[in-house]
Amino acid sequence: MRPILCVALACLLAGVATAPALGAPTIAVTTTCAYTGGQFAIAGRGFAPGARLALDIMGTHGSLAGAAIGSRSATADARGTFLEILDVPPAGATTPVLRAVRARPTADDSPAPFVLASASLRSVDRGARVSPAKPELAAGATQRWHLTGLPEGTALYAHYRAAGRTVARRSLGASSDPCGRLDFDLPVLPRGGGHRGAWEVWVTADRSFRRPRRGVYLRRQLTADGSSPRARVRVGRLASRLTPLDPRFSTPMTNGMAADASQIGLLSLTFVAAQGAAVEFLERIGDRLVRLGTSSAGPDELITVLKDATTWSCKRPERRFLATATLPGGSLALATYSVRTPSCAGRFRLSAPRRVAPGGLVRVRVVDRWGIGAIRPELCVTPPRRPRRCHRVPLGPAVTIAGRRFRGRARGDWVVQLRVGDRSVARTLVRVGGERGAATEQPPTVLAAGDSTMQGIDGFLADELGDDASVVSDVRIGTGISRSGQGSLPGAGDASTVQWALLATQQTARLHQRATVVSLGANEGFAMTTPQGARVTCCDAAWTAEYARRTRLTMQAYAPVGRGRVLWLTLPLPRSDERRAITSAVNGAIVSAAAGLTGVKVLRMDVIFTPDGYRDVIRYRGRDVDVRDIDGVHLNVAGTAIAGKVVAKELGRP
Fold this sequence. Notes:
There is one protein chain. This protein is 12% helix and 40% strand. The protein has six helices and 44 strands. It is flat and about 90 Å long.
């Protein structure tokens, strides 16, 4: 079996047409939720070159159950791949409907045809419902609003307006569901509105009211016959636009893209298979697209990169990106990607002297570890038995260090704290007077290491642990245990060196971490040479044994002679059959490597996310959660959040 190199950008679905098709035929739907009246794309690979196919949308989730409700023909190219755009059939409900999409030979139109490959399509009707739906209500009554079809992550605000001004505003939350669902309760009129006559209620994506020209909105007119909560209110028709007018919000995804957050403070974006066309990269913030830049690559280059496209953000750790290109043939290529960057929990370093004499000058130093500036945190100082005082510490763009001074007059412990919004992100103590300084105990260090599968988990882990630990992330994208000569790892010039074990030794000597969390294995399957000189290829018992030996050396380097803890994550099974065989061998080797090692524990992500084979959705805390990225390998934002919680919970155990 040939090795597969999978970084988040190279194994995306749109890249399948750039390589020869391998293994059994597969198809994939390039959306997590499609909307009635819109379109979606189906990508296929592994078919016989020139094969004539029928793509059927079934009425149920079974590929052989019932009759097809929609069909389209397709022809595989010389590489055995295809990409087709289909119309989304009516869902008939504002709750998601799951249907099967299948590929069969065109000639086989029997009631039970031979199905070459199948996938699932989740679709829903866009809509807004308000209950109880009555033409007249009391001003103090509350209604339940149900929305479906919002752009995922869009935060909404209700604006009550009378006589041309905003009387009240309410925050309604954000749609965190792939199908854009959001439910909220809203009073008919705000309490204490005190206005008789005509009202307007607007729901928009803007905190401050402005009439939305192209964005999302809901609007209805009301007429109140009095100003008390018992006043009767006539309710007008509800008008709405749940998707922005920009056509890029509704264009089906045809290509792949990814975000690289491994460089501290920065995000680089990549687009797959632009065929030499210029690619425009944008960030989606609520119901708006913000342009980040344009980049081009040669017609024979698979990847188009916009390096340092944007920076990490304390306000928006969950980021959503979109990229478009007009291909040489004139068709529009579009891709989307979501990633979570670290929160501000570990962004700043706050330093001050441990002790000063009464009346002495205390110099405080604030350092932005992200190295990007453009933020205004608050520095708060609390003297003994006195109220806290806070002042802004503005850091302009690219300004990463700031100093402040205060004079410590009262004896005792002074609390120095840095805050971003309503959250404390750094804290230290200064003792004024006394024999000894009040040393601030530094939290233990937790190292989060691995390949691209660690991205996102490290940020959520830092959020979960908070002030209890300092999480240091060291992600080496595209590296693996079975590879050699990896330039981003030490020991690249020595083929006999286990590079990850050498890196682990260096990291541990430098950081002295209390615990290490490792997620590694998306880039495996390469042939290895054993210490005895034998060459082993994936994925038989000899290859698995050599992989386990190398992994065990790395585990021992992270927890030398039983010191420290190591939590090593297995990988959820991928969508691809070929990649699944490699991942299964890697997971088995990880479990074998940890056997009998003190302080080393394997956390079975494969059992959590793929207990009975690949799946996009798992049941988590009473609800169905979409946890997989569209590439079929990585976890998405929700998946990495769950993994981060699992790791944090395990670290909290003695």
